[in-house]
Amino acid sequence: MTPDASMPGPSRRMVLGAVFSSCLGVGLIFGFQPPLIALSMSRFGYSSFAVGAVTAASLIAVILCGPFYPRAIVRLGLKRCIVGGIVFAAAILLLMPAWPSAPIWLLLRFIAGCALGLVWISSEIWMNSVSGPESRGTVMGVYGTVFSVGIVAGPVLLEFTGTEGAKPFAIGAACLILTLLPLAVLRGVTSATQDFKPLRGLSGVLRTAPIVMLAALVAGLVESADLTLLPLFGIRSGLTEKAALLLVAVFMAGNVVLQVPIGLLADRYGRKTLLGFCAATSCIGPLLLQSSLRSPLLLWPLLFIWGGTLYAFYSQGVALLGEEFALDDLPSANTLFVMVYCLGGVIGPSAGGIAMDLWPERGLPVLLSGAALLMLAGLLPAAVHGSPARR
Predict the structure, then answer these.
(1) 190 found inside a domain
(2) Dihedral sign computed on CA atoms, order 131, 132, 136, 138
(3) Rounded-to-integer distance, Cα 363 and Cα 155, Å
(4) Is residue 146 a part of any domain in this protein?
(5) Nearest Cα to 276, choosing from 295, 290, 257, 262?
(6) What is the pTM of this model?
(7) Most CB atoms closer than 10 Å: which of 125, 153, 229, 248?
């Protein structure tokens, strides 16, 4: 694969910048499309269940298509997978307003999810292969920040486009294509196919890197539960709707700001050490939420730090993939990592909703804290037996 970690710094920076740009586009669509679909379908008279099914179709697509991604990446190369996946997803977005029907949108969201999943995994493999071991945590921290900026920018873009007619779909597709341009015009850099070395099934992956896969599961579960249920938790705790939505905004701000500092610290002190610190913070944070709701001076810093440390589960988990697996294993390993993350994303809102129904005041915080505690417990054996300095 070219370029690789042995290439001069400027070449690596050019490639990383181009891949970051395409990641920004994927994050933008992830933040832009779900509220657009929800508001549009609500206006068409569809039920909340139908809205949820259409919205969840993309994550389910990534899980189901996962076994096919590694061979597609090997056959096409990373650059073709990213460019082709984004162009295909943009085309699907343009088709949606032509058929405003829940069954059609369910199918289109599923197909778009297949394409974006390929972009998602290919981007992470490329970043891992280009970044050297000394800077991998920082690179993935930048990646986490860029992706999060895209997600945050999605609803902001929707404010300008509105939610009626074909206009928001067309503008969203155009923005997605624009973020692809740096990679498309980078003619001097290609990514060749790699030899495919299949892992020994799920059990083989788990034996090789159980902590990495646990980080993916916990990240998907907690992130999805937070983003979906934090506003509802705030409203049920007596906050106004505006104040409840602000909970998520501050939570996401922590993610955007803290990923790069966490990545820098991970490169210096070891990724598993930083993951342990982040897990401890994410375990304590939810338990302090209820008592901090009436005190903004306590609540906003709490959400900011909690949000930043929680999202490190994913970004530093991807960095650990590059350490635990050889390059020819990365297509399979990274695919499984994303599949497990998406599985957590599907489980999180349902598990959180059940917890809130069973224990309205404490159910959600206890679930979120318990998931982070599981991550912390998984890291303890490595801490007790010792691990390489960079891990």
Answers:
(1) no
(2) negative
(3) 28
(4) yes
(5) 262
(6) 0.83
(7) 125
